[in-house]
Amino acid sequence: MERYYQPEIECASREQIREWQSERLVKQVQNVWDNVPFYKKKMQEQGLEPGDIKSVDDLHKLPFVTKDDLRDCYPYGLLARPLSECVRIQSTSGTTGRRVVAFYTQHDIDLWEDCCARAIVAAGGTNEDVCHVSYGYGLFTGGPGLNGGSHKVGCLTLPMSSGNTERQIQFMTDLGSTILCCTPSYAAYLAESIHEKGVRDQIKLKAGIFGAEAWTEEMRHDIEEKLGIKAYDIYGLTEISGPGVSFECSAQSGMHVNEDHFIAEVINPKTGEVLPDGEKGELVFTSITKEAFPLIRYRTRDICILSREKCACGRTHVKMTKPLGRSDDMLIVKGVNVFPSQIETVLMNKGYPANYQIIVDRVNNSDTIEVQVEMTSEMFSDSLSAVSAKEKELVDALKAMLGIYAKVKLVNPKAITRSEGKAVRVIDKRNLYQQ
Amino acid sequence: MTVKQISVFLENKPGRLAEFTDVLSENNINMRAMSLAEASDFGIARVIVDDVYNAVTVLKDNDYIVSITKVLAVEMPDEPGALSRVIKVLGDSDVNVEYMYAFTARKKDCAYMIIRVADNKKAIEVLQQNGIRPVCQDELVEL
Ligand SMILES: [Zn+2]
After folding, report:
1. Cα A241 vs. chain centroid, distance in angstroms?
2. What is the domain-level CATH number for residue B40?
3. Does residue B141 belong to the interface with chain A, where contact is any CB pair within 8 Å?
4. Spatial CA neighbour of B15 closest among A423, A375, A392, A412
5. Fewest CB atoms within 10 Å of the CB: A288, A311, A328, A374?
6. First vs last Cα of chain B: how many Å apart?
7. Domain for residue B34, yes or no?
8. Residue B125: is its pLDDT beyond 70?
9. What is the pLDDT of residue A340?
10. What residues does each domain of chain A span?
11. Taking 90 as the threshold, does the pLDDT of residue A351 lie above it?
């Protein structure tokens, strides 16, 4: 039977959710107008006043906030509460430019931990469980978020942090960990190590909550099988709070966004236009309950699809797909949005090296897309039909993923040029933006 | 009773085949037979050489994708109808020929065919029963 951490919220009617969202959005807009000069200026530039935002229907009128805005406002520019009311900062692991620092009041932390608690309960967690948190602790939100959520659920919490695999496995066997929280790649590594040590029968894990990086369905099956668990996805970003912005339920078919705290929109990344459910675009979040660091229409750069179809688990909150790519490198081919990461996923699933090049061109006023893939010994044989069949299989898989035909060209190893060690993934010969 | 055939992946690009044969000749590797199979956007070159190990090493060093397959090298008299007979013998026993190509030998009055079948063991049996002799790798050099 499905269990919920806050059933009256997680299973509320759509009307109720809309009502909460409208009421909280109106308050939040007034709050940022009053307390954050950045927002006031942005709204004034659009000729907007707080009174123009009467419900969620007016959300689309508000200007976007981008990661660049966050960097420009570093460190205190977006703070909506005095520092005396803030109790915590967390920060992104961003490798380029300045870091992003997010602030939290105690109330913000409480709500964030509630979101993580919902994810843990959705994964079957109760106060009988031993929750093994192997996300990093520190500035990274993974460890602190799941740790707090685990406390709320009443699990015995093991704040393992990342690394030291020997010790992880030791604690897992000695203390009988039942729920594992970490990145999917670390879960796969742990599973591997557990098998090598031959201690699989001493492991009591039943569920895993894995997020903070991209992973495939193949990886999920692999981890589930190796550890004998159910593996749940979790999504979040520091700017909005941390893990738990959305989480997977027993249906394992998308992540429920905690809509009482975050309003999700999907937009066309080129035009900013809001797209209907079911269409692929850039995910935008508005944090309507955040006190210290509220973000209005924050562009995540993550590409996904929203769905409000009834979920088997009973939760009513909108579901989002796993991020399908990044809007930064989106291509529009034949009117369809194509992301290099989608192509990469197909190649990975089919056992090809992730060394590829996408060549987009326009021939007779029609877009063409060619994916060049380096041939491997495993894929090759003396039989023309066998190699052609492999190629066809790849074409079909790409068609299924992208929705359009992409030509596949098998090339020699090392044929794809690398500049300064980093491969150029996309060559767009159409010169669409040079006029 | 089989010989090793080297198959090489060739990108569909002008000059690729010439590049490939150049690599072999520059390294003094003598091709005894070659056939080229082409799909719309790539090709497979299949070659028979005397020194398989050396050829494969050289090709791999030059970043070629290489695969080795055991194939039959069949000796037959250099006269009309000889090849038909070989094909008939195999066909009568349901041995499916995937592809075949000619092999040049220095020996007079004899012709050789490289034949690729799915089931080498069965093909050898059938051929021998009919007095046709597949050649083995060591003999190749002498031919
Ligand atoms: Zn659900």
Report:
1. 13
2. 3.30.2130.10
3. no
4. A412
5. A328
6. 15
7. yes
8. yes
9. 84
10. 7-328, 336-428
11. no
Mean pLDDT of A288-313: 96
Residue B37 forms contact with A (CB below 8 Å): yes
Could you tell me the two tokens for A45?
């530039």
Distance from CA of A408 to the nearest CA of B (A): 9
| A410:B42 CB<8 A | yes
Nearest 10 degrees: CA dihedral of A15, A20, A26, A32? -140
Nearest CA in chain A to B117: A383
**Chain A residues in contact with B63 (beta carbon < 8 A):** 412-414
Strands A243-248 and A230-236: antiparallel
In a domain, B9, yes or no: yes
CATH class of the domain defined by A336-428: alpha beta
SS3 assignment, position A353: coil
Distance, in Å, from the CA atom of A223 to the CA atom of A188, rounded to the nearest integer, reads 6
Ligand 1 centroid to Cα of residue B75, in Å, is 69
Chain B contact present for A310, CB below 8 A: no
Expressed as residue numbers, the domain containing B77 is: 71-137
Based on the fold, state whether residues B56 and B86 are members of the same structural domain. Answer: no
**Same domain (yes/no): B44, B80:** no
Task: Give residue A5 CA to ligand 1 midpoint distance, Å.
Answer: 13
Residues of chain A contacting B44 with CB distance shorter than 8 Å: 382-384, 387
Indicate whether B45 belongs to any domain. yes
- For residue A74, report the distance from its CA to the centre of ligand 1, in Å: 37
Which residues are within 8 A (CB) of A144 and not within 5 positions of it... i.e. 6 or more apart? A90, A137, A138, A242
Contacts of B69 in chain A (CB under 8 A): 381-382
Q: For residue A263, which of A318, A308, A311 has the smallest C-alpha distance?
A: A318
Q: Is the Cβ of A76 closer than 8 Å to some Cβ of chain B? A: no
The CATH homologous superfamily of the domain defined by A7-328? ANL, N-terminal domain (3.40.50.12780)
Question: What's the angle, vertex CA A417, arms to CA A412 and CA A422, rounded to 5?
Answer: 125
Q: In this predicted model, what pLDDT tens digit does every residue of A39-60 receive, in sequence order?
A: 999 999 999 999 999 999 999 9
pLDDT, tens only, A171-226 = 999 999 999 999 988 898 899 899 989 999 999 999 999 998 778 788 899 899 99
Sequence-distant (≥ 6) Cβ neighbours of residue A223 within 8 angstroms = A184, A187, A188, A191, A208, A210, A229, A231
Q: Which of A359, A375, A384 to mutate to test the interface with B (most CBs of B within 10 A)?
A: A384
Q: What's the pLDDT score for residue A253? A: 94
Mean pLDDT of A148-165: 96
pLDDT mean over B115-137: 92
Q: Are B117 and B90 in contact (CB under 8 A)?
A: yes
The residue in chain A having the minimum alpha-carbon distance to the alpha carbon of residue B16 is A412
Q: Answer whether 0.80 is exceeded by the pTM.
A: no
Q: Look at the block and give the residue holding tokens 């900013």.
A: A272
Q: What angle do CA A98, A39, A293 make, to 5 degrees?
A: 55
Question: pLDDT band at A251, cuts 50/70/90?
Answer: very high
